[in-house]
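In response to a reviewer's request, we include the raw inputs and outputs for one of the modeled complexes. The two entities were modeled together in a single run.
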Amino acid sequence: MKFTEEHEWLRPEGDLIVVGITEHASEQLGDVVFVELPEADTTVSKDDEVAVIESVKAASDILAPLDGEIVEVNEAIVANPGLVNEDPMGDAWFFKMKIEDPSALDDFMDEGEYKDFIG
Amino acid sequence: MAELKRTCLYDLHVELGAKMVPFAGYDMPVQYPLGVMKEHLHCRAAAGLFDVSHMGQVLLTPLDGDVASAAAALETLVPQAILGLKEGRQRYALFTDAAGGILDDLMVANRGDHLFLVVNAACKEADIAHLRAHLSDRCRVEEITDRALLALQGPAAEAALSALVPGAAEMTFMDVLVTDSDWGALWISRSGYTGEDGYEISVPEAQAEAFARALLAGDTVEPIGLGARDSLRLEAGLCLYGNDIDTTTSPVEAALEWAIQKARRTGGAREGGFPGAARVLDELETGATRRRIGLLPDGRAPMRAGTEIFAAAEGGAPIGAVTSGAFGPSIEGPMSMGYVDIAHAADGTELFGEVRGKRLPARVVPMPFRPSTYKR
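The model returned the following structure tokens for the whole complex.
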């Protein structure tokens, strides 16, 4: 599993990557009350604002971590935004995407580096 | 930047695991480990304890010893009937400016031989200067700096306070009581800012932490931070000064007519005589051109402060804006309040809030969003 500086995690799954937000991010956000996801089959560029997450405190954007295509989104977190607080690293994944260059994953932090990053 | 001030309960907040944030010049708890949502729901289901010691506590004592003199003096600064306020009772009031805008909102209690005022933290210095500038010939204006202020709110508040302080249960909404206790003299009002039954309690600083611990010792009372305080007051349809009301909003625009008694209106026994009276009395008769409304989004996306409001799904200029918006844990959905042109302010009107470039439908609704449970 890899981690971005925007507090997203990226988990390879076959030729796809699954994207979610980290436990640290969900704790910082507080209770999540609203999630807006992109349409499946959307082509995105790195750093595009592809999803929105609103907590009791504020709205935050979820950025596309890499160039690619969103192939599946997790409607469960739209129906039950609280899942993002309950299981951010598991059931509350946001979307799956097909990335153009799998080797680009190597540029992201591993778990140890992410732990250092969040201090 | 000036150093943040701390209330005398700061150490207790930290011990209880609060996340502290700057608010009105104070380092205040925004949430405890329970989190905003659960704190909100706990307050509605049982009871919540809030530190509101950052708010201003002010005694207004008449120089001639007659509380009516202080009441008459204060009536020159607010559009409320203070002379009509009976001993042992409290009333919501507004300081207005010469243009009819709102300088602050406050509580005024008649305590027999003087008045007791509670004002907003961010406005307290200006309020006290305003009181001194205009009332010093008739009143002594004394800021209380050695007392904490706690709010105990929710259906279990009565039982929790009564267990410690006899007489609390007999009070009704907006009653005030000064009583001796194990924690020194308590100044209690049956009021608050959550829409719940409950109390605000002024306690000497030296005993405040022990008193707070005694309240928290019961299994019904949890500490509640500013985060939940905001969603609670918004569900109750109550204005946050600086967001929903300020010097650019008049009492009638803010839909606060209910807070202006007949005696101060046109034809009343003490008509006008407060700053901005010409505008306020005129608007009471003919209405204002815009109005504060409740707005309930059809969807799940919160429409937060600053969201522009439109009359149609496409085209046209904004007809207003949201001043407070959040998710309401008890109503299980988003809610907003804001100002719109009077032509679009009727209950049931469909309007659109522009969120991230998209106009989302919403409906004008009466407030509160959740029925209040004051003990009348």
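As requested, we also summarize the result in words. Residues 10-54+146-235 of chain B form a domain with the Gyrase A; domain 2 fold (CATH 3.30.1360.120). Chain B has a mean pLDDT of 97.
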